From TrEMBL:
Keywords: Kinase, Transferase
Source organism phylogeny: Eukaryota, Fungi, Dikarya, Basidiomycota, Agaricomycotina
Superkingdom in the source lineage: Eukaryota
Name of the protein in its database record: Ribokinase-like protein
Kinase recorded as keyword: yes
Domain Carbohydrate kinase PfkB, first and last residues per copy: 14-148
InterPro entries: PfkB_dom (IPR011611), Ribokinase-like (IPR029056)
Gene Ontology terms, MF aspect: kinase activity
SUPFAM superfamilies for this protein: Ribokinase-like
Length: 186
């Protein structure tokens, strides 16, 4: 019999988290986990998520408090914040209008997000705000079907093979998301 409760994101675990926060660079709970840890109301809203994110930052994420917090918030997107650059929302790739046509199963989206974040940190030289775009695109492929995204290779006219996921290009989605975010911030 397992002696540990399944859900560890409870207020009683906050002191243990605070103890390790200076030793990690990025904390990325989902919205429900963040709100639960901080004893905040359970229904996630953008305002509550932003407050939770900044409260977690205030607890001292990273060396000398210079870490990042990214709260993964499903259809709302992700809120990413650092002390230096503040916070910003990165919308989910699939909008409410796309939901019926593209969202099949959200199982694994959080893990896919975190894998995409790791790749994005590599590609962006550690820029957590930009890396969150890679994370968002990665999750967009995972939720389009049950199980793993379908990987195919299409040959171009010059004999090169182009890797596609679910018959789309990750780079195309990244550029689309960047374009959308750029329009919003102008």
């Amino acid at each position: 019999m397992n002696q540990y409760p399944k859900d560890r994101c409870i207020p009683e675990e906050l002191p243990a988290l605070v103890e390790v926060l200076p030793h990690i660079s990025i904390l990325s709970p989902n919205a429900e986990e963040a709100l639960s840890l901080l004893s905040m109301p359970a229904t996630p809203t953008r305002i509550l998520i932003e407050e939770a994110c900044h409260r977690l930052l205030d607890l001292g994420v990273g060396r000398e408090g210079h870490g990042s917090v990214i709260i993964r918030s499903g259809a709302m997107g992700a809120y990413v914040a650092t002390r230096r650059r503040g916070g910003r929302w990165v919308d989910a790739f699939w909008t409410d209008a796309d939901r019926e046509a593209h969202i099949v199963d959200v199982t694994g989206a959080g893990n896919s997000f975190l894998g995409g974040l790791a790749a994005g940190l590599l590609f962006t030289d550690g820029d957590v705000h930009e890396a969150t775009l890679y994370a968002t695109v990665s999750a967009s492929f995972t939720i389009e079907q049950e199980g793993l995204p379908r990987l195919t290779h299409t040959e171009t006219n010059d004999g090169e093979a182009i890797e596609e996921w679910n018959r789309d290009l990750p780079r195309r989605r990244l550029k689309e998301l960047q374009r959308r975010l750029h329009k919003v911030t102008e």
